[in-house]
Amino acid sequence: MSELLTVANLSKQFGEQSVLRDVSFSLEQGEVLAVLGRSGCGKTTLLKILAGLEMPTAGTLLLHGQDLRPVPPNERQMVYLYQEPLLFPHLTVFENVAFGLRIRNVAKAEINQQVQELLAELDLWEHAQKAPHQLSGGQRQRVSFGRALIIRPRLLLLDEPFGNLDAQTRADMQQLFLRVSRQHQITSLFVTHDSREALTVGTRFAYLDQGQLTSFASVGEFVQDARTAIRSELAFWENIQQKLE
Amino acid sequence: MRSDFASPGISPPDPLSKKEGAPVRESDSEPRKSGAPSFLERGSGGRAVFLAAALILLFGLPFVLLGLLAVGENWRFPQAMPPAYSLDAVRSLLAADNDLLLGLGRSLLLAGTVAVVATAGGFALARAMAQSRSTARWEAASYLPYALPPVLLAVLIQPFIIRLHLSGSVGGVLVGLLLVALPFATLLMRSFWSAQTTEYEHLARTLGCTPGQALRQVLLPLAWPLLRTALVQTFLLAWFDFGLTNVLSVGKVRTLTVQVFTYIGEANAPLAAVASLLLLLPPVVLLLVNKSALLRKP
């Protein structure tokens, strides 16, 4: 595998407050780095720096060995997905998905073909002409996902994207994300505060706390680390199981 | 032993009610047809019609009066209606030297320019305010022009207008009106620049938009309902202004509103009525054009 992204000694300060401290990690093509962290741990700042929406105070950002810092967000081909789907309310589902292609002046026939294929893949074709407010939460998040996928991003930056969905829809979206990620070989950085979600979607794991990132070599190390609280959750369910038996 | 019927919530059957064979009133046995209004509904329907009629009368009568004043001749108290009618005042609009049409043009130019400049400026200033560290202070400062009546504001800025050699010019009046309309539009647009709007903008940037494309393709369409409101409101604010315009124009920039007051001062009822009708024309058009937005259901 080729190394896609290298982050070394990345730091960010807002005034006196240090938000990220010497963050280092690398990502290879097709990997999903699941970053577990609580609110205010610096995960949103990390994603914004990668997307080019914030400038780091110090550190190195390399994409395929090239310095990313002078590259503006629109040229990075890295899509930032928020917790809210943020569909454009003035556009239909079709036009929302086609947005990135229209910006790039892709030919109309090509846009129609690509959007149709993607909407069919995401099971959204029948909703193509609907307005965003006519969709359910899960459907809106799928449209948002499609809008990002259509431009074939080099890196997807997901900031707790399924955090506002109910448990069942959230599980469905995680499976959809897994299927599409594998199918399109998408490299992603998936930030979540839910350890189960991190274990479901990640191929590699990290923990971010007070601006410091700890990368784990294996899923075992991730589970064993007390800060992830996975062991205590496992113990809780085992305790319940024993009581039921 | 206690009967089951005695339990709370379940009452025993009333032996007097609906005996077999006893005549049953239609209203007891069948649900009321949905199309037929009840007594209460008929009452509220009647009240609604009465209220609508009263409102139409209240708002419509002044317009009827203006129409009658425009075409009535020698109409004096206690006559209920004009003794004679003439279209002279209306026809005078078409005369080459008529000042009313010029006033209409001046007012349209001024109010239109104020609306466009104030709305565009308000959009940009509200964004700057939202990104500022002293948002609350800027917001408080935006209310300052409303601490003074427009006439007093005009008196206070008059020396600056004179030094800028804009006294008595359309430019001077424009500057004065913008001093009132720009903070208004800024405060109106302030609610648009929320954290979510920033997220929309950031998302658009990562999807491939340059800052200009993000503005045109995402921010302006998102802001359009508020922009439209700001355009209409600032237009009306400038259109109906008399005090500030009258002071800053020093009698040289005769807008339609200024002319209405002049004709009233001269006791020229027909021309004052015609000018007033002209004055009402753009707001009515604006209200009709924006009817769908104004009557939008939540």
UniProtKB/TrEMBL annotation, chain B:
Keywords: Cell inner membrane, Cell membrane, Membrane, Transmembrane, Transmembrane helix, Transport. It is found in: Cell inner membrane; Cell membrane. SUPFAM superfamilies: MetI-like. Residues 16-33 have a biased composition (Basic and acidic residues). Residues 1-39 are annotated as: Disordered. The chain crosses the membrane at residues 48-71, 108-130, 142-162, 168-188, 226-249, 269-289. Residues 104-290 form the ABC transmembrane type-1 domain. InterPro entries: MetI-like, MetI-like_sf. It is a multi-pass membrane protein. Pfam families: BPD_transp_1. It comes from the Bacteria. Signal peptide: none annotated. PANTHER family: INNER MEMBRANE ABC TRANSPORTER PERMEASE PROTEIN YDCV (PTHR43357:SF4). This is ABC transporter permease subunit.
